[in-house]
Design goal:
- By secondary structure, the protein is α/β, with parallel strands linked by helices.
- It has two domains: 95 residues, Rossmann fold (3-Layer(aba) Sandwich); 50 residues.
- Helices cover 54% and strands 14% of the residues.
- It is built from five helices and four strands; from the N terminus they run E-H-E-H-E-H-E-H-H.
- Strands 2-1-3-4 form a four-stranded parallel beta sheet, with helices on both faces.
- It is elongated and about 75 Å long.
- The protein starts with a strand and ends with a helix.
- The relative contact order is 0.12.
């Protein structure tokens, strides 16, 4: 099996470490799996996959180790392009959420960026801030009163 790992191969970061640990563990568990590692440039990865399609060097799987700041050129159409004619794609997403501006820069409309991406991702944090923080503050005040401080 041949796997193309699109990651940050020469970066000192958690995403690089994840990719390195993944390839090391896979090589130990499945020595027959061959990994090719390329940087996060979408066009380079798409071109590489396309150039090897229908050859003996074709990839069986593309794994995108995605983080918005490192892979800002990766759009959904790149994954669709690879899946459409070449091979399956797995995406490991390393963001909690992306800022609205990053989403707009990546081609999303403001409406889709806000309602389709940002609010669902930031919703638990907003809920925490609006509901749980006041409850915790009241509990803290009650503890202070009880403690006589």
């Amino acid at each position: 099996m041949k796997v193309l790992l699109v990651t940050s191969p020469n970066e000192r970061c958690g995403i690089h470490e994840y990719g390195a640990m993944l390839t090391e563990a896979m090589r130990k568990a499945h020595p027959d799996v061959e990994f090719w590692v390329v940087g996060p440039d979408a066009d380079t990865a798409v071109d590489l996959v396309a150039s090897l399609a229908d050859t003996s060097a074709a990839f069986d799987l593309v794994h995108v180790n995605h983080q918005a700041a490192l892979h800002s050129s990766w759009m959904v159409n790149h994954i669709v392009e690879i899946r459409g004619g070449f091979c399956p794609v797995v995406v490991t997403h390393h963001d909690t959420f992306e800022s609205v501006q990053i989403l707009i820069d990546r081609g999303y409309s403001f409406f889709v960026a806000m309602l389709g991406e940002f609010v669902p991702a930031a919703g638990p944090d907003i809920l925490f801030a609006v509901i749980l923080v006041p409850i915790l503050y009241q509990a803290y005040q009650a503890a202070v009163v009880r403690g006589g401080r």
